[in-house]
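[audit] Reproducing an earlier prediction to check determinism. Same input, same settings, fresh worker. If the tokens differ from the archived copy the diff job will pick it up downstream; this log only records the rerun itself.
[audit] input (106 residues):
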Amino acid sequence: MEDQQNLEAVMGLIMYGGNAKSDAMEAIAAAKAGDFELADQKIVDAEESLVQAHHSQTGMLTQEAQGNHIQVTLLTVHSQDHLMTSIAFTDLAKEIIDLYRRMDNE
């Protein structure tokens, strides 16, 4: 993979992962305020960002599997860490929203 393509993929992971985490945080805030429609939409937005991040990641993994090894830099490691944190945060946000929803129904 060329350096420019690699950089674009890495930056995509960071950008989309960041967007997902922000949307998930907004979803929690919406649920806390009792706006479950907005919370659900923000989770959908977060998941869409994660799909986009996975597209960037898949491109990198495909190149690696084809024998086109990429240079692993601190930025590459950071992008993977950012993505995994965003996935975990989005999953936890769903659970928190469910808890708020239960509390609202009691």
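[audit] rerun output stored. Observation attached for the diff report: The mean pLDDT is 92.
[audit] end
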